[in-house]
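Dear colleague,

Following up on Tuesday's group meeting, I ran the structure prediction for the three-component complex that the binding team flagged. I've pasted the input sequences exactly as they went in, so you can double-check that nothing got truncated or mislabelled along the way. The structure tokens for the whole assembly follow below. Feel free to forward this to whoever is handling the docking comparison.

Inputs:
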Amino acid sequence: MKPVTAADVHASEVDVTERDLGLRYWTQGRISRRRLLGGVAVGGAAVAAIGLVGCTKQSTSAPVGTSSPGARPTTTVNDGTQDGPPTHLGGILRVRQDPVMPNVDPFGPGILALIQGLFLGFTVFDHMWYVPTDTGTTELFLATKVEQPDPLTVIATLGDATFHDKPPVNGRKVLASDVAASFKRFREETGIGFDWLHGVMADIVAPDERTVKITQKRPWAWVFTSSNAGSPITSSIMPAEILHGHDDLLHQTAIGSGQWVLQSHDNGANPKLRKFQNFRQFAGTKSIKGQPYLDGIDFKVVTDDNAALAAFKAGDLDAIGFASKDDAVQTQQQLGDKIVTGSDLGRDYDCLMLKYEPPFTDPRVRHAFNLLINRGEAIDLLEQGSGQRCGPLPPANKRYVLPDSDPALQEYFKHDVAEAKKLLDAAAFDYNQTHEMKFSNRPEDANLAEVLKGQFAKGGVKLKLTQQDLVRWLTTTLSQSQFHMTCFRQLPYEDPDLPLRFFLGAQGFGSNFMGYDDPKVDAAILAAAQELDETARIQKVMDAQRAIINAWAPMLNIYSPIGYGGRYAYVKGTISGRGSYGLFNRTTWLDKPA
Amino acid sequence: MATLAERGIAPGREAWEYPRERPLLARLGRLAAKNPVGAVALLIVVAFFVLGVIGPYVAPYDPQAFDRYARLQGPSAAHWFGTNSKGQDIFSRVLVGARVSMTFGLVIMFFGFIPGAVLGIISGYAGRWLDYLIQRSSEAWTAFPQLVLVLTFLSAFGPGLRNVSIVIAIGALFGGSRLLRALAIVEKHKEYVAAARSTGATEFRVLWRHVVPNIMPYILVGISSVFAVAVLAEAVLSYLGLGLSPGTPGWGIDLASSLGSAQHYPYLVIFYGGAISIVVLGFNLLGDTLRDILDPRLRGSR
Amino acid sequence: MWRYALRRLSFLPIIVFAVSLLTFVILRVLPGQDPALVIAGQGATKAQISQIHAQLGLDHPIWRQYVNWVGDALRGDFGTTYQSQASIRSEFVRRFPASFEIVFLSLVVSAITGITFGILSAMYRNSVLDYAVRVFAVFGASIPEFFLLTLLIIIPSYLFNYSAPIGGYVSPLHHPWTNLRLFVPPALVLGIGGSAALMRLVRTTMLEVLRSDYIRTAHAKGLSQRAVIIGHALRNAATPIVTALGMAFVAIFGGSIIAEQIMSLQGVGQWFFASTVLRDLPVVQFLAVYTATVVIIVNLIVDLSYAVVDRRVRYN
């Protein structure tokens, strides 16, 4: 395969939009795709841990677009320009903070670091690039050019940018060595989102001030995505001099080169962000001079969902993620055209994990268990119909997911108690055995467990439910695979890499939570991960999904929920339908005098 | 923490009431009849126990059976209290939930209040070093934040009806001991105790046959409070994510899980919240009535 | 009585010591409490866990960890939080005002409702007003606080799109009006819940006092009913009122966790809860001692006022 350089699309020569650039560049034989909340397999649970502390349901937090509640997510790219150029500059956007961060250190502690990482990564820290979920093409941020001369090497050229004006950095220039040092610092941490740093990246060096060179141990097509080198968490660029030996500083403030400066916070709560006046004026090859348009964003800790809705209705918050469709519909009715509400198919998904031990070593038992799951009923009971059935890959990965018409996926979604019983009988399944299913005390997990118990009972399979507190479940039950069965809601990943990797056994980065190992499944997943041509990779991702279904791999995915959000109509220029890209909302502006 | 330090209704804090010379049980019925509030309270309490026993048998539906086609229906002839988001019959869940709350109360009574009461009576009756030891332990235990106890025990051994009620019971230990100790001290100096002793009765016999019956009304007051505490504790713990697993029929957990929908479907919270409030009100008013009857300062003022 | 007070006070350190030891042991002995698992995060190796244990001093025997903790605590050093690495003392100082204000305002509400209702109930004994007031107060204590507080948020929002300014603590010195709007709902809920016992006590005392000879004398002297109530009866009820307020305090103190949670106040109660969930041992340890000390002191005050009542009643 002939590597393509990006030189021909450099901004100075070609007048194209960022999106066109991405499409042209990445469809011509490179890499693409993204993944975001990589670390978040568990990170998600960590976010929810804080949600638990706040006694609230986890909810979507990004302002949403203009579709009406219940509408299917739109596929048009909503990059914040739909409302035209801003008529008002400045002003402060007020949004809800939930969960609360324990501090502002992206490195810790432990299971909470992802929360700081996500919050700061989208705001205070800058990145070389990002891959929005809708287009799947890499958009350049700090990098002005990216080349992949061979499958193992990525070379990025950086543009001009400075760090925030805080001691000891005092607004100095961002150097390639900062990028390399930051990646290496993140490599000292562990976690699911850090797999690429440990398992794929061989080294990252800065040959000169503007050049970053990444070498990989093996080809990994998902390198740019949000699970890997485009991660809002682990690709955050920080000043090299504070990465070691400055724990106190890291806990108190965050210094980056992103569009927002962290002005103040109460030990992680109620952070106030202010516009970084010296923010870089380009995004890759496109001018973004003047952005962000707002003067700042104030986050308010609101841990209770009812309180958050009341605050939004009273006009104390400019945008909100609703806890339910009912909230969205009723609020829209009450406030009329003062607000705009919308929905988005979630990237998170509910799953049931079976430990690879008897009786689940028998694929017929796993197949039968899948047949006992009634996904449609689960969506009705748990989400009031606002959800979509989920195969091996969550349906929000539109470009990669098997179409509903695919025979394999139809087989996966099949619900048939009689057939399940036949399979169980054939496998000499012991109906008298009670199977223990552990789950956390997050409401979504506990409710899922209850519904699954009822569905399995219809097939004569007895489940014993064991609830655990979230931290215990996360750190012991899931992390150390101390379960027979467990069910939970996965975090929202932005690319297929991590959702597929949950099935990856010994051939991958070690073992998976289920202790499952199937060479055929591994081969299919790795084939997709190492296919650099996007069109070919889409096919291989689909093949991998089919392989997972054929093997009845012991993680049975159930559904993805649909999230609802709302904002006041005066909030313009929001970004939606692009996954977490909306959190980089430089283009939001308030259509009212500041 | 909040659950047990419930608004000062805990029995251990009612030391300003003082016993009379003669047993009072005999008069209770007559006085209660004269007292309309007390009668209503008693009715609520009796109804609660009846429901607690027969609730699961008279529930019209399986409280845990889902029905995706009967979700979120308002109260109707088929579903008197409506159905929840999983299509479960709320009326049935309220009926079955009474059993949960009653079990909770019974466990806390047997494993928390009664041992505490025994300790208190022994402490007051025996006096000396035993009194000293029990009183200081009681002080330390009462001061110990139950939040730590509840959270750590539940994370170690898992939530669920059994573990939650046991841990609350442990936390409630000593709860009634102070008042009963004070009463035992008063009783032990009474003449009948000396008289009984002079006939050669053992200390245990004196305690059991003479002192305890005299204190019994106050024990009833304490038990009344224990049930009020238990019903509230289940609700508060469930709200904090430490109670029963969502889905289990229980007034507290059902109320806590429905709060988010309260605006759209008020019936989801009214019946659970109402059941809790009415039953707790019943126990509290019953306790108050008993106290009024027992209070020497109000004697003769009626 | 003073001797009694002093003797009780001398037990305070012993009891606090016992509480701290109990907390220490529970947090370290029960399974599933290892803070290193939380700190290390997903996929940490055994070596990393041991390294964290060593860093935090968790690899020492429990008795030695405890001795170290006591040594530091006696010097006023309660360490730093695991979660934010901030000094526990400064974090406590930051969070204290919100919790204090909830408790203080709730006590004020308790005192006002309790005393007013108690007096009304005694003056119009066995009337409809008496029953109504008593049932109201007891009913207030019978609804779960989180339910009542949620209703206080939902209903004004549904009817008027009104919301308390939820979103962090606001100092009463800088924004008195915002502060008041933020604190009125929790103060009402906790305060009325805590007033039932006080109301009962005031009522009983008033009834007793109103029948006594000197009140009759006061009436005979031609003093108005109001003057009698305020000038004589209420003064006599002062001690039991302190007693009941002490009891209400302990209840409200505990209930503030719920209020802080719903009102997003980030106070001490919310900190206690979050830290226990996250196994932030030094914080839990400190707050356990703090809570115990406050509760013991308040109980002591309550007991002392018992002693006063005791004397009067016993020798009446």
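The radius of gyration of chain B is 21 Å.

Cheers,
M.
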